[in-house]
Amino acid sequence: MAYYRNFDTPPPDPKVLQALTAQQRQMQERIILQKPDFDLKLIAGCDSSFIGEDTILSVFVLLTYPSLEVVEKVWHRGPVELPYIPGFLAFREAPNLLKAFEKLQQKPDLIMVDGHGISHPRRLGIATHLGLHLNKPTIGVAKKVLVGKYTEPAATKGAVSPLIYKDEHIANVLRTKDNVKPVFVSPGHLMDLESATDIALACAIKHKLPEPTRLADHYAAVYKREV
Q: Which domain holds residue 56?
């Protein structure tokens, strides 16, 4: 989900930006991109939604893999601790997502996040951020490009083209359904691009979004209405 700053509000405090940037630089050094070493049986999808300007609701949906049957759904509502700052969304969403994750009775082998992994100006999208905090393999599946250039993949499901940023292949532009807009798949942490793309495509059954993030998005809207 995209969030836009109200330009009637003051710009971010430069000291806050400096501190967050320094923290991202430190976190960069801990990112591990590798072919995952797991027997993938449980996969989680997560997403967040904002209620007004001061409350965030985060959802985790746990599914079996490869059958993609829902096992658990949990959510947590909490205060927004940071205003929206472009490039630093993870610091706004991650604290509440981590609290929602704690409520899962079973823990996933892999987390698929509605957002970016390393396809971020400083390689610290929300998927990478969560992976580092939880020491779990993560994948980012985003609806819109954040950085980099690409050519449009073919219109058929499974078509892929590379997303290139600063001469690095940071993500794949993946067509998950015939004749629909592609998604942007990047590894977050403890994951490689090829595996991330294969898993995202395997989870795209009928819809544009893979089931873990599609269901997380769906239940975020459901729980938002309830609260």
A: 41-226
